Each structure stands twice: as C-alpha cells, then as structure tokens.
Amino acid sequence: MTDLYRIAIVGSGPAGLSAAARAAQLGISHVLLEKTDHLSDTIYKYQLGKHVMATPSQLVLRSDMDFDAGKRETVLGTWERQAAENRIHVKYDAEVTAITGSKGDFALKLKSGETVRAEQVVLGIGTQGNPNLMRVPGGDLPHVQYTLDNPKAYVDEHISVIGAGDAGIENALGLADDPAQQNVVTIVNRSMEFSTAKDANIKALLAAEAAGRVTVLRGTTPQKVEPGWVTYDTRDGERRVRCDRIIARMGSAPPRRFVELCGAAFEERDGKKERVAGTGIRFTSDERVSYPELSRTFESTVPGIYVIGALAGYPLIKHCMNQGYDVVEFINGNMSLKPADEPILIEKFKEMPGSRSVDEWLEYLRTRIKIFNGMSQLQMREFMLDSEARTYRAGELVFERNTPGSSLFGIADGAVDIEVNPTDPDIKVTVGKGSIFGEVGLISGRRRGATVRAKMGTIAVEVSRSAALKLQSTVPSAKQAIARISTERQLLQLFGSGVTADDLDDVIATSEIITIPAGKAVINEGEDGKDVFVIRSGSMIVEKMIGGKPVFLSYLPAGSYVGEMSLIAGGRRTATVKAAVKAEVIKLQGDMFEALLRRKPDLLAKAKRDMAARQDVNAYIEASKDSFSGAVDLYSSVSNFLIGEGIGEATDVLLIDENLCVGCDNCEKACADSHDGLSRLDREAGKTYAHLHVPTSCRHCEHPHCMADCPPNALHRGQDGEVYIDDSCIGCGNCQRNCPYGVIRMDSTPPPKPSLLSWLFLGTGPGPGEPSKAWSYKHSDPAAEKPKKAIKCDMCAGITGGPACVRACPTGAAIRVAPDDFLSIARLQRESS
Predict the structure, then answer these.
(1) Where is the 4Fe-4S ferredoxin-type domain (predicted)?
(2) How many CB atoms are closer than 10 A to CB 831?
(3) Is 233 helix (H, G, I), strand (E, B) or coil?
(4) pTM above 0.70, yes or no
(5) Where are the domains of the chain?
(6) CA–CA separation, 754 vs 766, rounded Å?
(7) Which fold has domain 144-248?
C-alpha cells in the first residue's frame, strides 16, 4: 500500500522549499513534489547572473533555509546544499495532474501514473507556468518568447521587452549590459509609471535609459507583430519599430483550472463526470488574475489544502519563505504563531481607536472599504505595509485645495465633506463610508482640486500613489470600483443640472471606458449612431468634409462630451471626431442617456444648448466654404499643424505670430531676468506654419510626461495649471528625457548679476537676459561644484502680471493660450466678422 505522508508539498519554489525544510526540522513525514529535475524552477529560469533581491528589507526572514540578496547561482547553490543537509524528502520529475480526496486522505495523481497519498496538501506552485500571452496579430510568431535564460546568448539583435515589471526590467538590463553584444534594446510599459517594479530596478532602468543603453517607451502597447518588425500604439500614434526578438514579460495568472478542481467532488451525469457545484478551491472573483480564497492560516476552501507563495498573491521571495515556515507550524498545531510582518502592522495600528488586533483591523478595513473587498486578508497584509491608517476628528482638515498630493483615501467609517466651490466653503459634497476620495489627483497627477474635512469622526486608509497603481493592476475589482466612482463624479461635474448619483446608475452600469489611439476616430461623419462620448483623458478634434477634404472644426479637451446631436436631433453623424493624442473616453449607451434626458428636463435643455452651438459652427462652415474658403482652409491647416506639434495634450501654450515678431528677443530676456538669469524658452527653435510659430517652451500638458518618473516628486501642477519644479529637484534628468518636446534642460544657476542700472551707467554685468557662459565662468569659482537642476517654464507663477515673455513683447506677437480656446472655429468667426 502507498505510504500516507503527513504533508505533501507541491512545488519546490521558495515557499514550498521553506515548508519542506520546516517539516523536516519538526520530524514530520513529508514529500516535496517537483515537476522538473531541479529545485525551484522559477528561480532556476531566472537569467544567468541575475541579482536576486531580498525585499522588503524591513521584514525579518523566518525559515530554516537561508536567503540573502545575491546572484541567482549563489541562491540556488545555498538551497541545494541546505536541502540535502536538512534531509528534505524531494521527489523530482513528479508533476501533479490532479488532487482528489479529503482532509486526512488526499490522493495526488502524478503525470507518470503514480499516486501519492497525504493527510494534508500544501500548494506552492506559483504562477510563472501560466504567463499572460501576447494576444495581438502575429503574437504567436516563433520569435516571441516568454522567458530569458541567458541574455549573453543574443548578439547584435533588435530586441523588444514587453512589460516593465521586475522581470521585464531585469531582462532588458541583462540584454543591454554588455556593449560588446551590440543589442538594441527597447522596453515597453503600458502605463506612464512603473507601478509593479521594485525601486532599485526602476532606478537601474532609468540610469540605463540616461546612458542610452535602453530605449523606454511609456504609455505604449503592442498592436501587431511581423517578422523583423513590431507596431506599437503610443500616445502620439502608431510607431513601427525594427524587432528581431520579443521577450514578453507581461505577468502571469494562477493555473486556475487545475487549482479549482483540487479536492472537488464529482458526480455522474448523462455518462459524464461533472464537478459538484460549490466543491473545489474557490477564488475571490471570476477575474483571470484573482487568487484563491484563504484563511489566515493559508487554508483554502477545501479543508486540508493550503496555498502559499505567489499563488496566494505574495510574489516576493521573503514573503514566500515566511509563509512556507508558518503553514507547517499551523498544520502542526501552533495556532498562536503570528506572521513575521505582525510587529510592523502593530506599529501602524497603534494609534487607532479601540482594542482590535491586527487581524481584526485588516478585516475591518477590507470589508468596509469597497475597493479593498476583492483582496484576501493575506493580500491586505502586504498592501497595508505601503499604506497608512488614519483617524480624523469632526471638522479636521484632511487636505487643502491646491496642495500637492496624489494619494487616494478610502473611508472605513464616518464621512468627509468636499468643499467644491473655492469661493464658498459652505457648498459641499459629502462622501461616506465605503467610498473613496482623492481619485482626481491619482488619475491626473494634478494638485488637490478641493478642500476636504472630516464631517464627523472618521477612519480612513491613505493609499500612496504607487500602492494605488499596484492595487489596480493586481486586483481587478479595485480597478473597476475606482473607474466607476471616477466616472460617476466626472459625469456629475460635467452634466450638473440637478442630476444625482442615483440618476446615473443605469447610464454608468452600461458605460464603457475605451482607449482611443492617436489619430483614430471615435465618431465618423455620415455613420449611424447615437452613443455619447465623454473625454476622460487626452483630447479630440472635430472635422467635417467640405469640398472633398477634411476641415478642422474644433478641439475638445478632457472633460468635454460629444455625440449628443444625433441623439437629440436624429439623423446621421454630422462630423468626424478623432483623438488628437492617445485618449480615454467614456462611452455612454445612447438609449440609456436618452432615457436620462427624458427624466431630467434641465439636462435636456443644457444638451440642446450645446447642440445648438455645434450646429452654429456647422452652419458657419457651410456658409463660408465659398466666401471665406481661403480663411477656412488656412485655419484648418494651421490647426492640424498645431495638433501635430503636440498642442492636443497641452493646457497652456506659447505661440508667436511671425507677422508681428520683430526678433528683438525681449521675450527670452524677460524670461531670464525673471528666473535667476536662466531663460525657459528658445524663441528661434521650434516649427512654423504660415505665420504661426511654436517656440520651444513648456506646453503644461494635461498628463505631463515629465512627471512620470521624478524620484523626489519635485514636479507639481499649480493652481493655474502650470507645471513647475520645486527645490527638491536632484538633477537626475528623468524629466528632460521623458519630455517629447525638448522644453526641459539641465543647468546650474549662474552667479548673481549686477543690477540693470549698474549695467546701464557703469557698464558692469552682462546686461538683460541670460548671461553668457563666458561671463558666468569668469564671475564664479571654476573649481566649485555646480550641481545642475531641471529648468523649465513655470508660467511665471507668483509673479504679478503673468508670463514675462508675453508682457515684454512690444508688438503683441507672443501670446499664451489654452488650446480649447485657440483651436476653435469661434475664433475664425470673430476674425472674419
């Protein structure tokens, strides 16, 4: 008869290996089942020479196996030696295909046909064997691979690494590490930030980017793979890149089918065996990337089957090893054992009211804050290591309008008042238990848009931006909840007119958030349709075919909506609406929005006013196509030129009318004199179309590229929309590299200049404007260290009178404008009247 082990451990990764070592130390009969011929296949498949990190650094290691940061080969060598020393019973080439039975007598069927029996089962199989695949045309071509064993094996290739988590970054760095290999390496990140990677890896990648060893594409996704090429969807449109090899590191998901069937009961139905509903291991949701439901002791919904490590939602090695140790202690009856992170969490909760334990606080917060509902308590433990529990008294300030901040708050108890009107603090919106606030700063990176105070005694969790981004990428229900709340609030702000959150339930339930690549249409002239689109981020342009060619009508920034004309007036679409830059829109189903308009006459009246304004534009274009055809054509051409120059993502842009400019350079001189002798603009640089020139000066983008990777968080948006750099800048140059418009430079502040009067009457000093390098060198200590910092336009924030460049222009050639005002047919109407 087959031996009955006390514990069968499936998978010899860090979690399973640590569990087996604890069982061996306690003298518990056990078997460690490994499907390959070596230990820890995930670590084994790391690229050769990879540095394995031991994070989080503040977490103590609780295991009978040693683990320190070091090379892959060193880590594996230590574990192989200690596995032998600890007399761990390992069974190699033992792939488990099914687990049946119940607690006390499980049968683990192996691929070889053998059966292993055990009283308890510990699953430590991880998720790396189930990678997320490239689901684009050509994604199955032979040069697409999902692992990288030896980066030194590839020489003189154009290689794209898809995914900028830890694995992707380490692969990219490994491929670009040796200049002799002459690889051209590109890493692609779908977001603008690196939300799932460790800080050390991010810094190493940014250093490699600065040195020109790796190209980093942010806000980019693959669209099509061809032999020798890959096409990307970037913020600025499609980009086709040479590519000999693709390393896809886009994460992985639990092997759900296998796990769900573990311990399941089956019954015969119509000659087939079918699983009995409710049996087997349950997951926290139906989402592909969700994890099994687990107790605090790691026991699944099948008694006697435990889940640890990456399959439990804990991917870090130190976490995995601690869980392996703990689970065997629990199985052995040590129920008083506390997790290794208990002291850290005790410290976080020590100021909270009442006498709850850490487990009780975690469950309290998890169940009461909606965005946390989809996490297991184990995931919640890890999440709270990067978040803060807060308490507020009635009336206490949470944050103030226009202060920097991009964290997200979830309310577990109480409520807050949001002062939405800056001139009248009595106009408030109340947000209560279970909901969130601060999501605007999270999505846009802007300063706080309102003042928030506790309405009553309130308990909340403040989630850092990095933790919130990670939460959305790993917990689908959290991402959906944040998207729903932000959608609801955007619609309430946009439509107003007596509309309440309850009124929007059906509209939001059937809405959809869609990403539109730059240049792609969301509405096409002449087509049927009555869906309404709200621009969530990015911007759109509206065009109409006149005389067989597209004529630019208007520019629509984030916060606008379009599509109501066909809904209200009927008929086909009267214009084409397409993305100026990569954009997100909220698609509102026409039938649902139409029903809302019928219920809300004030909203219908507002929509009709907006529609009338658009109809006036169309009528003006039709009437002008003969008498003002030249003006209309020029306006359309200039507008398309400006969109091509990135004005579509700007909030404030400096333009120069070449018909009026006399080349005096007063604008540059005034800028330098207002900013410690360093000009923030280059008048002569930039492109010109017709008489309109776009100099090199900050556009103050809606979603600034420069903010994407600023280690000290020195970049902020001011109350007037200006993007500025504070004194915490460390001169790393990330903002300069990320700006696609070349408007940021790195420089050191020159020595103080004598006054203008001294220059006029005594001839001292370099005169107005930026001093020459020769003068700066002569009047400073050449041996002194001159740390450089990032220099960019701040729209003369804090200086009376507004931008100095505009004030100093003697002819009125320089203007600063918001694109939605300048790129409007209304301007052409005014000029032609």
Answers:
(1) 652-684, 721-749, 787-820
(2) 10
(3) strand
(4) no
(5) 4-130+254-340, 144-248, 344-495, 504-624, 642-832
(6) 8
(7) FAD/NAD(P)-binding domain (3.50.50)
